[in-house]
Amino acid sequence: MPSNVNVRGMLFLSLTVVGVPGNMAVIVAFLLLVLQESWLLAADAIVLHLSCTNLLVVLVRCLMETLASFHLANVFGDVGCKGVIFIYRTSRALSIWLTFLLSAYQCLSIAPPGSKWGSVRILVAQNLPIVFLFLWVLHTSTSAGAILFSVSSKNDTAVTTSAVNVEFCYVNFPSDIIKEVYGAIQVSRDVVPMALMTLTSLIILVLLYKHSQHLKGLRGAGHAGSGTCGSKQRAAKVVVVLVTIYVVLYGVDNGLWVYTLTVRHTMSSSLISDLRVFFASLYAALSPLVIIASNRKVNSRLRCVHKGQNLSQSILKSLIKILNYYVRLQ
């Protein structure tokens, strides 16, 4: 058993080592962008918010699991289990829906000029803080079950036969019916954006293909393409990659969750739950690497940091500008 716990700890440690600096690098890059340009494009604001929620996923779940696996910190008492699972479920759901929001917005951005979708894109960009607030309220509400049902594995005398074993904690459902209803809500919360972002990605691919055919015609006629349009298409391709990673990893996660719901007793092993958390957290760790490798704005700002700019002062000024921006929106 100790060897299994150590392997488990190493897996979550690897996600922590990759995910924490990766997401922090993306966040720092966008804060520097705010400092230099005093504002963010809507797509950049969504990516920044996505990186913040992904960082929260890695810190709250992967880092805590690593510390507990190697007995470096005891964070999984009853209160710790409720807090960690609630924050993880909320930030995980936010990561999913923000990925969908990013794919939908990028789809609107590359829609043909003059189409009615241009006005929808502008409306979304103007009301982005409201959209963020709505998503936070929605997912904190639907994750409340984690506070109600989570208990420490040390308190196993109160565990029912409908509980879900997550190694250091149990999600202790009072009955199979409540477990199935809660599980169905969680699956729906994932499957709906998964289906929608798959659809938007397919639309993006169709639009990119049509645009490439159009550019071939223009080049044949001796016309040059638009640099702005090219940057939008690069961003759209990155979104398609992120969505593909998401659908694969969260598809495995949800498949394992459905299997867990079909088991009519509390599992003695946390293997299934561990695999679910690992695959879901893997997206939070890998997505910043995709963003860093493909986003020119992030690349250029990180190069500036590497050249020795005063990073702490730059970040402080950026935070002040962001706060002032949100105050003006009120």
TrEMBL record:
GO cellular component: plasma membrane
Pfam families assigned: V1R
This protein's record includes keyword Membrane: yes
Major location category of this protein: membrane
Topology term for the membrane: Multi-pass membrane protein
PROSITE patterns associated with the record: G_PROTEIN_RECEP_F1_2
GO molecular function: pheromone receptor activity
Sorted UniProt keywords: Cell membrane, G-protein coupled receptor, Membrane, Pheromone response, Receptor, Transducer, Transmembrane, Transmembrane helix
Stretches that traverse the bilayer: 12-33, 39-60, 67-88, 94-111, 123-149, 191-209, 238-259, 271-293
InterPro entries per the UniProt record, alphabetical: GPCR_Rhodpsn_7TM, Vmron_rcpt_1
Membrane recorded as keyword: yes
Subcellular location per the Swiss-Prot or TrEMBL entry: Cell membrane
Domain G-protein coupled receptors family 1 profile, first and last residues per copy: 22-291
UniProt record, GO biological process: response to pheromone
Family, similarity comment: Belongs to the G-protein coupled receptor 1 family.
Protein name (record): Vomeronasal type-1 receptor
Native species: Poecilia latipinna (sailfin molly)
